[in-house]
Amino acid sequence: MTDRSLSSDVAFTPAVKALQQRKGSRGGYRRMEETGGWETTVTFLAERDSVFLATASADGQPYIQHRGGAAGFLRVIDERTLGFADFRGNRQYVSLGNLSENPKAYLFLIDYARRQRIKIWGTARVVEDDPALIERLRPEGYAGTPEQAILFEIAAWDANCPQHIPQLIAAKDVAAALAERDRRILVLEAELARARAMA
Q: Which helix (H) or strand (E) holds 185?
């Protein structure tokens, strides 16, 4: 056992490690920890249009909320910080209330088309009094009204394997593929008609 703190300790608590040991997966995760654990700086970020934000109240009641916007709405502020403009929604403010008393938070990004997911542990804070930051984080051309910004400081992140992730394709991508197929069919039908006319 080591005394040094590992980035993966944010999730692999003593109870989790004991379960890993009992169920046979601890050896593999120990080897991962020996090489430094999970990443702590941003070396990723595809043009996501959707993310799940998990928070918890001061007494530990968990809550998860979907956040979305135009592709790329989740921005890299620096190598350890992500941010996004938080738009007006159902006005329950559960996530914001939780963050006011417990800054620990979690982001879950999933790309169904490529069957990839990224889990990000850290802390988050709400910024209401910085109009320039909120405007900088607003996705260009997005019509929603941002009420505040949320800045997320990364403690650790990990990318999971694609096992059990269903492959789903966004409706706009399917529509684009079908439109291209239909365009190609029209071109081929015109070429066939010309060939038949010449015969």
A: helix 171-198
For residue 146 the two structure tokens come to 């941002």
pLDDT band at 1 (very low <50, low <70, confident <90, very high): very low
| pLDDT at residue 144, rounded to an integer | 80
Token pair in block for residue 70: 């135009």
The architecture CATH gives domain 39-160:
Roll (2.30)
Ranges of each domain in the chain = 1-38, 39-160, 169-199
Long-range residue pairs from 74-78, CB within 8 A, at least 24 positions apart, any chain: 74/45, 74/48, 74/107, 74/109, 75/137, 76/42, 76/45, 77/151, 78/42
Residue type, 192: L
Q: What would the mean pLDDT of 117-146 be, rounded to a whole number? A: 91
Quote the CA–CA distance of 34 and 28 in Å, as a whole number: 10
